[in-house]
Design goal:
The structure holds two protein chains of two kinds.
Chain A lengths: L10 H46 L6 H11 L6 E9 L2 E5 L13 E13 L5 E13 L2
Antiparallel strand pairs in A: 1-2, 1-4, 3-4
Chain B lengths: L1 H57 L1 E2 L8 E2 H12 L4 H14 L7 E9 L4 E10 L5 E8 H12 L5 E10 L5 E12 L2 H5 L4
Antiparallel strand pairs in B: 1-2, 3-4, 3-7, 4-5, 6-7
Classes of the chains: A alpha+beta, B alpha+beta.
């Protein structure tokens, strides 16, 4: 009578197969996770630049332009949350009124401050100073 | 016995194949991440560089000897019309605007602003670089004429440099028109800071 397959007796066969499967699936899981994480970061970066472009499109930012840009940016949600602030020498001159959900724990968050010319005075010859547009984006509707 | 050895060899082959597949997966995922990471950083930095140029184009400054402010570009045009070149004070104003615009990322990035007019033969380069060999101490300065041109060539030929440029139409004292080019370079602190710009 022929002997059947017994895992304990055929350790020389079972162990390499088990190692192979563990190695392959571990690599597959890591690769999937990495690709997903990279894609998430790419989406966030593209959204960050798209948002900043809405605010910088007028060239010189005024209070009115900032408010208009906030309204225009309001439709850009779709799974990405954001906040936009206009910071001039440490003073917050403007903040978009949207109320985003809190940042989930361990979620990737991108924060960038882009320089913008901001009109600090429009009396006589306009005075434009260098201010910063602080854009924060993260995943989560 | 022979059958047992054959099975063992088969599993060793399976292990080799799965190890190769795993290695390919590791390599391709890591490469994908690095490549896209570089591209997304480039996207943001490219936008940042253009924003610096837009800021220079629209910002107003009050020169030391004046009581009222004027556009920085207008002051540059006046300088060339009156003196045939940019004055030290105007270049300082330009440097102050650029360094303020780059303040949020100044710790990790070096910059250069190249202002030149081929027809007038005037060239200026303002720069600020961090030297990795000296604990990333910032070295800022200005170059002129051929030194500026050489330094600009060094920067533009280096790896990972982002640039944005704008041509400006200017009038000279003789009434003729010329073109003044404004180029902003931005790059991560590193090798170029170690080598220096040679001016």
């Amino acid at each position: 009578m022929k002997r059947g397959f017994t895992p304990l007796a055929d350790m020389t066969v079972v162990v390499p197969i088990a190692i192979s499967l563990i190695l392959f699936f571990a690599a597959l899981a890591w690769a999937t996770n990495t690709v997903e994480s990279v894609n998430n970061r790419v989406n966030l970066s593209v959204k960050l630049v798209d948002l900043a472009e809405i605010f910088t499109a007028p060239g010189i930012l005024t209070d009115k332009e900032f408010s208009n840009a906030c309204t225009a940016a309001a439709g850009m949600g779709e799974g990405i949350s954001y906040t936009v602030k206009l910071n001039c020498d440490g003073t917050v001159k403007g903040k978009c009124p949207n109320v985003p959900p809190p940042i989930p724990p361990r979620a990737t968050r991108l924060v960038y401050a882009f320089p913008v010319p901001y009109q600090i005075s429009s009396a006589g010859l306009p005075e434009n100073d260098v201010c910063y547009l602080e854009v924060t984006v993260w995943k989560g509707a | 016995m022979e059958r047992g050895i054959a099975s063992f060899i088969d599993t060793i082959f399976l292990m080799l194949i799965s190890a190769t597949a795993a290695a390919i997966l590791f390599y391709s995922a890591a490469h994908y991440g690095t490549s896209l990471g570089t591209q997304t950083s480039a996207l943001i930095l490219e936008f940042y560089t253009h924003q610096v140029l837009r800021t220079i184009s629209a910002v107003t400054v009050t020169p030391a000897h004046c009581t009222h402010s004027d556009y920085l570009l207008a002051i540059m045009k006046k300088d060339i019309y009156n003196n045939g070149d940019l004055s030290k004070a105007t270049l300082d104003e330009l440097n102050a605007v650029v360094s303020k615009a780059l303040a949020p990322i100044h710790t990790y990035y070096d910059y250069g602003v190249y202002v030149y007019s081929p027809s007038l033969g005037k060239r200026h380069l303002l720069y600020c670089i961090h030297n990795p060999s000296a604990n990333y101490a910032p070295v800022c300065g200005m170059c002129k004429d051929s030194n500026a041109e050489n330094a600009s060539n060094t920067i533009s030929g280096a790896f990972g440099v982002h640039s944005a440029y704008a041509p400006l139409r200017i009038r000279t004292s003789g009434g003729a028109y010329a073109t003044l080019y404004l180029v902003v370079y931005l790059w991560p602190s590193g090798e170029l800071g170690k080598r220096g710009l040679g001016c």
